[in-house]
Amino acid sequence: MADTRYIRAINKALADAMDADASVVLMGEDIADAGGSFKATRGLLDRFGPARVRDTPISEGAIVGAAVGAALGGLKPVVEIMFMDFVTLAMDALVNQAAKSRFMFGGQASVPMVVRLPHGGGLNAGPQHSQCLEAWFAHIPGLKVLCPATVEDAYSLLRAAIDDPDPVVFVENKALYAMAGDLPEEPARASIGKARIARQGSDVTLVTYGATLFNCLKAADALASDGISAEVVDLRSLQPWDKETVLGSVARTHRAVVAHEAVRSFGVGAEIAAVIGEEGFDDLDAPVGRVGAPFMPVPFARSLESRFIPDAAAIQAAVVASLA
Amino acid sequence: MADTRYIRAINKALADAMDADASVVLMGEDIADAGGSFKATRGLLDRFGPARVRDTPISEGAIVGAAVGAALGGLKPVVEIMFMDFVTLAMDALVNQAAKSRFMFGGQASVPMVVRLPHGGGLNAGPQHSQCLEAWFAHIPGLKVLCPATVEDAYSLLRAAIDDPDPVVFVENKALYAMAGDLPEEPARASIGKARIARQGSDVTLVTYGATLFNCLKAADALASDGISAEVVDLRSLQPWDKETVLGSVARTHRAVVAHEAVRSFGVGAEIAAVIGEEGFDDLDAPVGRVGAPFMPVPFARSLESRFIPDAAAIQAAVVASLA
Amino acid sequence: MNSRTAKKAIGGNSRLLDLHRTMLLIRATETALSKLFADGEIPGFIHLSLGQEAVAAGVCSALGPADTLATTHRGHGHVIARGIDLGGFFKELMGREGGQCKGRSGSMHVADMGLGILGANGIVGASVPLALGSALAHQTRATGGIAVAFFGDGAMAEGALHEALNMAALWSLPMIFVCENNGWSEFSPTARQFRGKLANIAGAFGIRHIHVDGNDAEATADAAREAADHARATGPVVLECMTTRFHGHFEGDPQKYRDSEEMAAMAAGDPVARSRARLIELGMAAADLDAIVSETEARVAAAVEASRADALPDFDATLADVYTPMGAH
Amino acid sequence: MNSRTAKKAIGGNSRLLDLHRTMLLIRATETALSKLFADGEIPGFIHLSLGQEAVAAGVCSALGPADTLATTHRGHGHVIARGIDLGGFFKELMGREGGQCKGRSGSMHVADMGLGILGANGIVGASVPLALGSALAHQTRATGGIAVAFFGDGAMAEGALHEALNMAALWSLPMIFVCENNGWSEFSPTARQFRGKLANIAGAFGIRHIHVDGNDAEATADAAREAADHARATGPVVLECMTTRFHGHFEGDPQKYRDSEEMAAMAAGDPVARSRARLIELGMAAADLDAIVSETEARVAAAVEASRADALPDFDATLADVYTPMGAH
Ligand SMILES: Cc1ncc(C[n+]2csc(CCOP(=O)(O)OP(=O)(O)O)c2C)c(N)n1
Ligand SMILES: Cc1ncc(C[n+]2csc(CCOP(=O)(O)OP(=O)(O)O)c2C)c(N)n1
Ligand SMILES: [Mg+2]
Ligand SMILES: [Mg+2]
To answer: Which domain CATH number covers A139?
Structure first.
């Protein structure tokens, strides 16, 4: 299916997972009748009924807590939190309950659940509807964290997340929902923890994930016309993340820039850069550059938000700096 | 006052701040009559009365949310969250409200409040009472994050936090509460964002904060007897953090190890290491080492927890590796 | 007709005329916003309170200068009724430098500290603990003020409300919990999301509950006065205002989920039409009321024009203002 | 005396004897824990339910094998009444390899999936959404089971409870909300922290509320049976058990905040003494009851000895088990 939209890939992954496994259930605010705020669950109520596609009250904490109990009880809940910013109300359930139950219980049980978290700006949705908080979850032992950029990955990683026995935080960039791409008839099953080399290159490694992948590819195009060959690694999975692929690339290019939409300081890129600096020290001909949002809440005005979100030019500049 | 306990320094800072400024109020569970679970507020109810030292219900979310409203209304609330793990219930209030209000409101108002969060293990308190989650807050524009290690800093940084016009996350390591140290009659006013060189050295820079400072000092002692001179930098403030002092030290030693009790992956140390690798690239003779807890929830059993918390030997080993 | 003549005409019921004027201002503002949004002049998304004007006008009519309020994603009416500068309001929603919040917040976070407006809020339920804290500050500092938490019926499902009801009761805080009950949470009837009865929940905490037709401006103003008196003298009170949301959850929402019957019934309950009819009944001339509408619309149009002409916010200044500048305190 | 003779002696009231035995086991276990803790043999902190045994015994007596429960920091009684292996329990609290949770969890997270125990919990209020989800699983998978959420009176202040009450009512979930009301939240009377009345809060959601003397094992068992029947047939129900906490909030808490009157009154209400007296009234010989105590204490002592002898958990194996091992599912 060429020209499948990202949101449609999510929708299809949910539908196919529900078809394949009767224990998969969906929960979230306005996901049933209304098909979700971003229409990720459109049509699923009709197909699977209200017991498996469940509209919830506006109670994020109890929803995610209930998902943990349901997962321990033999269901595989997939929860939609409308905006990632609202997961602030469900942190106990995710971090103290979901992430730790298997460990705390001595391995007696797994907690197969997925929490879908739309993140990112570009919609002028303002400071409480645009944040990228994935670094929080990557820091929590017991959680897995995925962030697909492409339409195919949106599908295959969501299937992988639902199949996974452990709790998965599944991060989708809202600005990608309308993006169309290729979704093969039989998409490959994705392995959690495997990055993808989205573009091969030899002068510098761009490490990225989510919507920023496309800015990296744009930057790589622009750099190519200046004779700079950038390799682009799409992490896809942030916890665990694919050190081997990243370090392997850096071993060839000797330079790296890590780029994401989240705030730069203490973001996911810090860990990636630290590991490259540590384990790839002898390979590096230049400091690892980092591109991320500046240290401010996501501003509302178009003119502000467009400067806030790291663009291709910023990535290009970081590459140029690393080659200087 | 030589031999003042850490918890007593906290207590005195609260008392002195309340004396100095009538708008300072304390809120938390069992902080009034009972003087707090760790006795940080002992005696303050008698001294300042129930309107300023307020026992709250077990409602972390509403308590911190109310602190934001109170701060906007002219008070300076200092909230005690009994264990840092419970702040998972107050993340919206801290991250979406406290951190962003000044910014969102166009600078019309500041939010002068402090949230005290006891973190860390060593008490065999198990997976939900021992976490070090400070990296989350350091990632949030609008918050300041402090973590004093010494008795004097516990006092002066808490005073600085309460005086600060912006929301401060104040992290105390529970294992330090009983530690005695020197508290000068007139403690110096601390500046938020300034590190302290806790021990001078020339071969390697150990960057740390909180209780791990003492393991770094121990490691430095042990290293000294092997002829290795380690400089120890106590960050004290994690957001903002003192890049200049850290980079200045690395420029002299050419080697760095960052150590903390929090889980290593995606921890505070990642940002520090990334920045050293970026801005101190030419100064470095070896990769920046990182020491932190392994990627698992804090285990309960003594035998497990003692291996979980990074000790002086682990720090020493990282230094030795960096000198190899 | 000047306002003195108007007041005379309605036999001294100047309060209703004031309420009506406030509602007209909200109506004109949001009608203009609806158009601006459709035209792409407003970024992001906006939630209009068209149909709910009487709640805003009525509740805010009971507040004094020391009082504070915190509101929701659907907060335009409240901040307008509280007297926010119309220019600053439009500039904010249009992302301009001169916006009340310098273009950083947009519709969902408009605030005016000078008027005691602790912000609209993007988080359902979050207004309640904020107002609780504000009430605590009023009580502790003995300002004589009260705090108002506006929240929607959907927000009743958030734990924050229940935590706050308990704390307000426990501490006898000077606070009004205003539930703006429009029957809808986004695209679903709240009845399908919330099984509790607010009157009984309040009662379980020993908190007085006042129920009012929130499309009747005078009744709402009376109830709000009663609630405010209670809050000031005694402690917390819940004021539940039954009202109707005319537009979709956000602008652009076609509301296919609402049946034609409900849509038709809306017009009958229109709070603005009702206060207009009542004023005419009291002797005011339709032409005079029309003139107020025209004046109001002109005011709004001027504010829109000024917003269009305003500069865009400066990025570097914005970045420099995340924390309180040194020396500012 | 063997149990057949004992049952005969009490005229067929074997249920009370079973409850009594369960309570004795909890009592003996926690009495041993108290001593072990004082002796430094138990790391961390522990919250004992001495004085609350009848709630555990009574509620769990009403549960079938498919049923599930989630409990609190004060959950020893519940897991023992549910039948947790005593050896695994002690080994867990003593941080041993053979612990029910391999020494990773300690007192606050003891779990046994085989018995439907979704864990004690270190987070006040967190048991409630967990049980809610478990009830949802029962309903969706038509297991015929019900879920029980144990929570303390202090937990009523957490929003989680109120969110869950609504959802349980909305979805008619097969669930019992068991409030173990001992009057205390840590070091403060709950009356100073919570102004709501649980009966009325439940009522506001249309949820049935059953009130029982939680120090009367038979009454609690009866009420729990009624609640379980209701949960299975109809939907959620709140069971509020009034009880007494004998020891401090945690072991080592000297309870200076409790007056001597209250402390003195405790003995009179002792649920174990009450069931013993009742059994004697029914004709059982004190000596026979003493024999059960001795047997129980011997069982506990043996479990403690076995725990002491058990190995310490392996760190690397623990680290390798944070996620489900590949191929395990
Ligand atoms: C914590 C949180 N959850 C969900 C949302 C998304 N959301 C915005 S408005 C809304 C419905 C609110 O309904 P109600 O409280 O009745 O207010 P109304 O829109 O009717 O004014 C929802 C679910 C949000 N903004 N915040
Ligand atoms: C979220 C959270 N807040 C605070 C605590 C600390 N704490 C542990 S038990 C307790 C009191 C609980 O009282 P109650 O629910 O009545 O249970 P009881 O101890 O009486 O059994 C508190 C405040 C906690 N564990 N979790
Ligand atoms: Mg509504
Ligand atoms: Mg209690």
So the answer is: 3.40.50.970
Beta bridge partners of D184: D189
Q: What is the CA radius of gyration of chain C?
A: 20
Q: Is residue B191 part of a domain?
A: no
Same domain, B312 and B247: yes
pLDDT of residue A2: 75
> Half-sphere exposure (CA, 13 Å, Cβ side) for A213?
23
- Which residue type does A15 have? A
- Number of the ligand 2 atom closest to the C-alpha atom of D151: 15
Q: Is A76 on the interface with D (CB under 8 A)?
A: no
- Residue B178: other Cβ atoms inside 10 A: 11
> Within a domain: residue B241?
yes
Domain span at residue C225 reads 3-311
How far, in Å, CA of D53 to CA of A174, rounded?
Answer: 52
Query: Which DSSP state fits D190?
Result: G
Question: What's the whole-number mean pLDDT along residues B87-96?
Answer: 98
- Are the C-beta atoms of residues A207 and A219 closer than 8 Å to each other? no
Can you tell me the mean pLDDT for C30-44? 98
Number of domains chain A contains: 2
Q: Beta B53-55 vs A168-173: how paired, if at all?
A: unpaired
- Among residues A154, A181, A208, the one where a domain terminates is A181
Q: What is the pLDDT of residues A178-217, one digit of tens each?
A: 999 999 998 888 999 999 999 999 999 999 999 999 999 9
Q: Is the peptide bond before C189 cis (omega within 30 degrees of 0)?
A: no
> Shortest CA distance to B160 belongs to which of C133, C136, C326?
C326
Indicate yes or no: CB of A300 within 8 angstroms of CB of C43.
yes
* Predicted confidence (pLDDT) at residue B185 exceeds the cutoff of 50: yes
Residue D1 has pLDDT above 50, yes or no: no
Residue B307, chain D, CB below 8 Å: the answer is yes
The position carrying tokens 């750099």 is A223
CA distance B146 to B116: 10
Percent of chain A whose pLDDT exceeds 90: 97
Q: What is the mean pLDDT of residues C93-122?
A: 98
DSSP-based three-state secondary structure for C44: coil
Is B304 within a domain?
Answer: yes
Greatest Cα pair distance, chain A, in angstroms, is 59
CA B131/CA B94 separation, integer angstroms: 18
H-helix or E-strand spanning residue A308? helix A302-308
- For C185, residues 6+ apart whose C-beta sits below 8 A from its C-beta are A29, A30, A57, A58, C152, C153, C154, C157, C193, C194
pLDDT at D18 over 50: yes
Measured distance CA(A69)–CA(D132) in Å, rounded: 7
The reply to whether B50 falls in a domain is yes
For testing contact with chain D, the best of C123, C128, C162, C197 (most D CBs within 10 A): C162
For residue D154, report the distance from its CA to the centre of ligand 2, in Å: 6
Domain around A280:
196-323
Q: Across the interface, do A30 and C188 touch by the CB < 8 Å criterion?
A: yes
pTM (2 d.p.): 0.98
C-beta of residue D130 within 8 angstroms of C-beta of residue D70? yes
Q: Encode pLDDT of B153-184 as tens digits.
A: 999 999 999 999 999 999 999 999 999 999 99
Report d(CA D72, CA D57) in Å as an integer: 16
